[in-house]
């Protein structure tokens, strides 16, 4: 069982101590006996321990930086929401395929932002501009925020903030099962709680440092019983020997675990495995022993939204994925909605 994340090292921006949450976190980490260092900026952690890149990367992934989010312009989000809401950056998981490895580059450490009232004010502004339409905010574009929330409770505050809003909804996704403190949050059905789910082979081989499949399914059951709208991101959908049986087994386990009330408004997002050339280089450097298949000759080349090309499965393989997983979802969760396949 994967234990809840505890940082080995903490950096603090001096400005973070101007905020109650900054003071609270520093006090908490002092009591836990964790080494705390000062940094001028959460973007400038230069003296991380480690003798080489391999060591530095692993130490960075267990380092938490407590900072102030200066940029309150929200990025437009992925297909699932209008805006990304920035409560944290980085992740303690070691998923071999993760796109954060390239987008985070030389800053793989985890950052949590303490000026949450400023972030809520900015969200409020976006909601007013789009009124009377509902505005959805995605809280996990650049992090697995639920993975650190047992320490910060930022996400819990956000769930309750959007629970009281008329025009806002919150969404996030996690690979972690340490979510018990979120079960009593006053969400009022305005937060969609999603789990990143995969077949056992992929979680075991490519997602070290994250909760196991059975733990995530049990956490999803609790979330469903707590009345949250529930969703699953099946990603990355990865073809391997026995993949059809592996995904069927996963859907069977989900169906037997979830309370019937949680299946009435259930969403699925399906994302096939893809990689870019820069991502391949970073993955092979950070995880030299990975079994991840990154052979360009077996893939189809596709231009991305931002002019960066990526390698995806062939058209025939994509059709097979869509048909197979679509059939499983229809069989086990006939009322569920597939939001997209990409």
UniProtKB/TrEMBL annotation:
Organism: Paenibacillus solani
A molecular-function term among this protein's GO annotations: S-adenosyl-L-methionine binding
Family designation: Belongs to the radical SAM superfamily. SPL family.
Catalytic activity: (5R)-5,6-dihydro-5-(thymidin-7-yl)thymidine in DNA = a thymidine dimer in DNA
Lineage of the organism: Bacteria, Bacillati, Bacillota, Bacilli, Bacillales
Main function: Involved in repair of UV radiation-induced DNA damage during spore germination. Can repair thymine dimer 5-thyminyl-5,6-dihydrothymine (known as spore photoproduct (SP)) by in situ monomerization of SP to two thymines.
Protein keywords: 4Fe-4S, DNA damage, DNA repair, DNA-binding, Iron, Iron-sulfur, Lyase, Metal-binding, S-adenosyl-L-methionine, Sporulation
Keyword 4Fe-4S listed: yes
Protein's name according to its UniProt entry: Spore photoproduct lyase
GO CC, alphabetical: endospore-forming forespore
The protein's Enzyme Commission number: 4.1.99.14
UniProt xrefs under InterPro entries: rSAM, SPL, SPL_Bacilli, SPL_firmicutes
Example GO biological process: DNA repair
Cofactor annotation: [4Fe-4S] cluster; S-adenosyl-L-methionine
Superkingdom of the organism of origin: Bacteria
Quaternary assembly: Monomer or homodimer.
């Amino acid at each position: 069982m994967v234990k809840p994340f505890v940082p080995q090292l903490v950096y603090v921006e001096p400005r973070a101590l101007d905020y109650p949450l900054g003071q609270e976190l520093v006090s908490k980490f002092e009591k836990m006996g964790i080494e705390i260092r000062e940094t001028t900026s959460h973007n400038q952690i230069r003296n991380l321990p480690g003798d080489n890149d391999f060591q530095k990367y692993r130490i960075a992934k267990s380092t938490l930086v407590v900072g102030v989010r200066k940029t309150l312009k929200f990025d437009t989000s992925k297909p699932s929401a209008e805006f990304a809401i920035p409560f944290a950056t980085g992740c303690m998981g070691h998923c071999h395929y993760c796109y954060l490895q390239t987008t985070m580059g030389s800053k793989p450490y985890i950052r949590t932002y303490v000026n949450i009232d400023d972030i809520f004010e900015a969200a409020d502004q976006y909601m007013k501009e789009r009124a009377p339409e509902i505005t959805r905010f995605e809280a996990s574009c650049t992090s697995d925020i639920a993975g650190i929330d047992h320490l910060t409770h930022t996400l819990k505050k956000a769930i309750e903030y959007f629970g009281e809003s008329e025009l806002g909804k919150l969404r996030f996704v996690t690979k972690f099962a340490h979510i018990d403190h979120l079960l009593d949050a006053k969400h009022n059905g305005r937060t969609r709680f999603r789990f990143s789910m995969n077949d056992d082979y992929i979680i075991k081989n490519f997602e070290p440092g994250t909760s196991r499949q059975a733990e995530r399914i049990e956490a999803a059951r609790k979330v469903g019983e707590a009345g949250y709208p529930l969703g699953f991101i099946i990603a990355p959908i990865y073809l391997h020997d026995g993949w059809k049986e592996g995904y069927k087994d996963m859907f069977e386990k989900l169906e037997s675990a979830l309370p019937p009330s949680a299946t009435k408004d259930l969403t699925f997002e399906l994302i096939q495995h893809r990689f870019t050339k820069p991502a391949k280089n970073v993955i092979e450097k950070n995880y030299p022993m990975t079994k991840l298949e990154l052979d360009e000759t077996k893939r189809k080349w596709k231009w991305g939204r931002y002019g960066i090309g990526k390698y995806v499965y062939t058209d025939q393989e994509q059709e097979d994925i869509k048909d197979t997983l679509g059939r499983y979802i229809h069989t086990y969760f006939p009322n569920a909605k597939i939001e997209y396949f990409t």
